[in-house]
From TrEMBL:
Residues 182-358 form the Arginosuccinate synthase C-terminal domain. It comes from Kibdelosporangium aridum. Its EC number is 6.3.4.5. InterPro entries: Arginosuc_syn_C, Arginosuc_syn_N, Arginosuc_synth, AS_cat/multimer_dom_body, Rossmann-like_a/b/a_fold. Residues 174-202 are annotated as: Disordered. GO terms for cellular component: cytoplasm. Pathway: Amino-acid biosynthesis; L-arginine biosynthesis; L-arginine from L-ornithine and carbamoyl phosphate: step 2/3. Keywords: Amino-acid biosynthesis, Arginine biosynthesis, ATP-binding, Ligase, Nucleotide-binding. Residues 174-183 have a biased composition (Basic and acidic residues). It comes from the Bacteria. This is argininosuccinate synthase.
Amino acid sequence: MQAKKNEVIGVFQSGGLSALAVGVWLHELSTPARHYIADIGQSDRTKMDAVASSLRAFGDEVAVVDLRSAMAATASDLLRYRARHDGGYWNTTGAARFVLVSQLAPLMMADGCDAFAHGCVGGGNDQRRFARYGAQVAPELSVIEPWTNPQALERFPDRERMLQAVTEYGLHLDHGSGAERSTDANLAGSSHESAELEDLETPVTRLDPRWSKWPEQTPADPQTVQVTFRDGRVADIDGSGPDPVEWMAQANEIGARHGIWLRDVVERRIIGTVCRGIYEAPGLELLDRAWSRILQASLDATGRELYDRLAAVLGAAMYEARWLDPAAHAARDAIDRLVGDIDGRVTLSVHRGIAQVERMQVTSGVVQQTRFGSGGNRWSKVKAV
């Protein structure tokens, strides 16, 4: 859809190259734009404030909105439902799009915006995610997709031209974005793409992680981490308390410091292509070691088989922007019935890219066979596994 001079456009502003170029394009069309910068845990607040200040100096309106709680709650869902995608990586980018549209689109409407725009590549996964969630949560807002617009593509035929314009206008660019690379980050994780990494022969070690260390760079001594689950959700990590923002940050710090983070995959995308992506989710990777063990001790064979099937449904739903669809609601309801009363505690030993379960306790679960401890002929339901 074309941008009109008299309508106010709400811009999903990440501080990445293509999103800033959208701002430049609208500015040069004299179209009023209001940029919404969401704090979803992608970087510290000073960097977001720098983006906001540069856009205000540029002459546009800016709102910085704290969405860390919403992002953390969605990260908690990713773990509870193990909503992963092709190759087993965590759906952190798809999850971020759900959070951004569901939280910011209604705010844009309340602020008097007539349409919203984003910097996603034309025909890509994210374009479809914004369009689908936008139609579900704010159907009154028109959607402007600059990188399917001939005028915008004529002004910015490539990322080099985008970088030139963003630099000339003095806009503050996220450090993970440039002409040859792009990083999408939030509290749950980050994804990395670049011209170099598109070559499948390029070794993954060419990547510069956003937060994490490579295993050989990590501390020589292991760290013991205790993860507590209550009602099927994380309740504490080493004293973090139950707030998902706090325990997600704690898990990210531990996982990143000890090199537990990497997924290098060639994913099958919504649009039918394949694309290499490298995914950095240190907190979710760490917590999944503990949650997987709790599930193994708490669900019987039939329950675990059903859980895994539903998890695959939800992984696809998050990836394909169908998280609000009836099938996804039904899958979540079913998993909630399976895991809603699971309590337990897992102690992990974390060292140089490996998180090993040292011990665990569960307060609900299937009957454990104690063949050797009971003489081989008795069964007991115990708390320690």
